[in-house]
Every structure is written in C-alpha cells, then in structure tokens.
Amino acid sequence: MAELRTEELTINMGPQHPSTHGVLRLVLTLNGEIVTNVKPVLGYLHRCFEKHAEAMTYPQVIPYTDRMDYLNSMSNELAYVLAVEKLLGIEIPERVEYIRVIMAELQRIASHLVAIGTYGNDAGAFTPFLYCFMDREKVLELFEMVCGARLLYNYIWVGGLSHDITPEFITKTKEFIKYFRPRIKQVNNLLSYNKIFIERTANIGMLPQDVAVNAGVSGPTLRGSGVKYDLRKEDPYSIYNKFDFDVCVGTGEYGTVGDCWNRYIVRAYEMEQSLRIIEQALDSIPEGDVHSAVPKRVKPVAGESYVRTESPKGELGYYIISDGSLNPYRVKARSTSFCNLSVINQISRGHMIADVVMILGSFDIVLGCIDR
User: Fold this and answer.
1) Angle CA(5)–CA(9)–CA(14) in degrees, nearest 5?
2) Which SS3 state, helix, strand or coil, does residue 279 take?
3) Is residue 251 included in any domain, yes or no?
4) Which of 114, 134, 295, 372 is the most exposed place for a label (fewest CB within 10 A)?
C-alpha cells in the first residue's frame, strides 16, 4: 500500500503574532498540521545594548540593563552591578545586600506571574491572566513605593541603592506575603490543575536533560527537566547563602518530567520559595546607610570580571572588560532567553501547530533579552 505523502508548507508565525511573546518570527515547516522544522528569526527588537554600554559611564549603563528583560529589571541591575563591584573590589553594607535580595525575589514573583498569566492566555484561559496581573500590580506598587518607578527602576546602584526602604515598605511587604500565599493555591486550582490546561501541556515538548544541559538551558526551563540546579544554591552570590529555601524541579505529577506542564509548574512552586526568602530577609535586616559605599566616581582599574546570577528566567551573566577609564571597554550580557529558545526546533518536531504555541510559552522568553 503506497504511503500518502503531502507537500511541505512553510509559513510564518510572527513577528506580529500574539503568542510569540514579542517580536519573534518563527518560520514553520509543516507536513499537513505536523511541524517538521522550526527556525526562530531574531533581530526585530535589537537596541544595541552592548555597544551602547561602551559610550556610557558605568552607572549610566544601569538604566540600559533595565530594558533588556523589561519584566525583570531589578535582577538585570543586580547582575550588572555585582560585576562592576567585583572590578572595584568594594565591600557592600549588609543592609544593602538584604534589600537587594528582597527586591530580586519580589521581581521573581512579578516575572513568574506574567509567565503564568500569559501562558494561561496562550491556552485560552483568560481568567487566570487577570488574577496574575492583579497580584503583579501589588508587587509593582511596592517597587513604586521605594523608588517611584513601576517597570524600569535604576534602583540598584554601584555600591548601594538609590533609596532606602521605609518601615511602611516593610509593613506593606509583610501584608503582601500574607495575602499572596493563598492566591498561589487559588491560581493553581484555577489553571495548573485544570483538565484542559493539562491536556494542552502534559507530554508536549519533551526536553531531555542532556539536550537542555548541552544547549546551555537554565532556570525553570532546565529545572522542569528535573535538573536541580540553581545558582543561588550552587554558586551563591550576594547573601543567598544565609537563607533557607528549596530548589524546585519538575515533579511529573502530571505528564512527564521535561514537558511543558513541568516547566510551567516550577514557576508556580518558586513563588512560594521567594516568599520564604523575603520573610527571612525582612525579619533579620540590619540597620545601615545604603549610600555609604556608593563611590563618587566609578573608575575601576584595568581588568575583567564575570558575574552570573539566577534571574527568574535562568542564568544571567555580565562579562565586563575595564581599560581603566570611566567607561567600560566592553560589556557582554549572557542572555537567558536566547539560550532557552535555542532548543525549540529540537523539541517541537512531530508536534502540531497549536503545540508550538505552548512550547514557546513554556520558555517564558522576553525578546528584549534575546536581541539586546
């Protein structure tokens, strides 16, 4: 009996497609409804961050880092500032370190809420999207209270912070923790354990551990494949070694470890761990001056430094070369979303077009980080 063969079709998904999470173009090769190849086409949001950094002083680069992964500005700033401080060799006040951790974990929660809400929207569930954005607003209000900004902060400075936190901020953050814990369970009941959502994500886009590691995949995308690797534990920076929290991995509770559902659920679990870290930091935050170590002029000696951090999407690193002037000679950012996106072709082949939407959404990419 002759095999039925159809002619392959090449179509564009994006760059103006609502489910590509930004201006990303996917060139899909299809055999009927089945995907045989996925080619990501980048560069539609290129803002030349790394070259711009060469024309700026070290502190002036900080607002540019905000605009990379613009849903993760606090963590972008933290990684860059740590790299500059490593070049300078300065000691940071303990109060500054505690506040930085609080801000980074609040940012992780805000980032994951966008990831969960938009992923539910990709699957056709609009109500969880509204719930997640309502809760994210509360985090943004905390950021606004401390520095006046809601998206792009320029808050974490070389040697310190732009503003100290107030007793009111501590009170409001504790109120948020008390409010948000039951909301995580509510969103899980609404979306994570929803039968239709599970059928759309379980056993879809299987990412084996060896493929993930070899491709440089990191963050929840890696931990969804069962790899228990988190830089906050494996290579602690700032004061993360002082806090007790768990590294969340895919459980296989639904589907199989390494599929879309398990990549998704890691983010839901991590929000609870972020609350634990914030609670511990608030309870033991010391007194101090957040401006005492801020240098009047940032001019490191000639040399180089690399610092990597665990951002909400994975390993974010900055490699900086100093020639001894006021401007960095070279700044290179290690993008989390870029590495995570690199496996999309390998794990999408054999699935249907609708599955590509769920696979892409499970990476939680931001194109500002990819194109830089």
Assistant:
1) 150
2) helix
3) yes
4) 134
**Taking Cα atoms as reference points, which of 136, 144, 134 lies closest to residue 113?**
136
Q: How many CB atoms lie within 10 A of CB 120?
A: 25
How far, in Å, are 68, 121, 191 from residue 186 at the CA level? 31, 17, 9
**Count of domains forming the chain:** 1
What 3-state class would DSSP assign to 6? Answer: coil
Euclidean distance between CA atoms 277 and 280, whole angstroms: 5
Model confidence over 65-76: pLDDT tens digits? 999 999 999 999
Alpha-carbon span 203 to 150, nearest angstrom: 37
Separation between Cα atoms, residue 89 and residue 363, nearest integer Å = 36
Q: What CATH number is attached to the domain comprising 215?
A: 1.10.645.10
CB 300 within 8 A of CB 219: no
**24 residue type, one letter:** L
| Residues spanned by the domain of 184 | 46-371
- The two structure tokens encoding residue 280: 């511990």
**The overall pTM is greater than 0.85:** yes
